[in-house]
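Dear colleagues,

As part of the handover before I leave the project, I'm documenting each prediction I ran so the next person doesn't have to rerun anything. This entry is a single chain, and its sequence is reproduced below.
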Amino acid sequence: MGDEKVPAELDRLWRLSSESRLGRPAKLDVDAVVRTAVQLADRDGLAGATFPRIADALGFTKMSLYRHAGSKDELLDLMADLAIGPAPELPDDAGEWRAGLYEWSLAQAAVFRRHTWLTQLPISGPPRGPNQIGWLDAGLRVLKETGLGWSHKLAVIGLLGGYIRSASQINADMAESSRHTGLDQNQIEREYGRALAKLVDPQRYPEAAKLFNAQIFEPPPETGPTEPSDRDFDYGLELILDGVEAAIATSARGWPPPNP
């Protein structure tokens, strides 16, 4: 087993092989290709990070890039791991799991705000890049004294990651809508609430009608352009953490049985 060769894509993802130091230093390497791809995606969206555009930005031919990123799918894996960056330092003292997961979540949400194209990447499998494993390890360290088994810890991290990705995608979509309509987030919500208050029939949709007539989509008069979604994100995150707290309490009573 120890003699098995690491697949080329993992070799590049973990930067296991170094370029030859003989002769002139290489002008093109994995890091240069991936950094340029991330810069293009940040500027022009994921569709802008194509092999031809990367090659043009670097001054090389498209074919020369394949030595450093063997396919489009591999390039996306490399970009995702570079963009997410190193995991944050989190409190991992016993009893501090909630604060740790809260910081972990806010830090990851900040990554998605910096690189909005990350939510568009296909999920092709579990995390496998060094930075992604770093984030996984940070979450596991926060949960190490909770009494949860491995599969339950992974479930917690997966639930939080899915929530962060979904909320970030909604925020990115709303921001794109704002750019197209010229309306800020408060204006979009206000127009939505007023329109639905007129359309929703209280006989057919009694609770929805009460919702839209409660004027919760009307911002206070002094409120300027803001992102109410941040408030919604925090509330949803606290709900998830409440569920984790309940699971930890249940686990302390011996159910479900700890898994390997």
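Residues 20-25 have pLDDT under 50 and may be disordered. Residues 150-181 form the longest helix (32 residues).

All the best with the project,
I.
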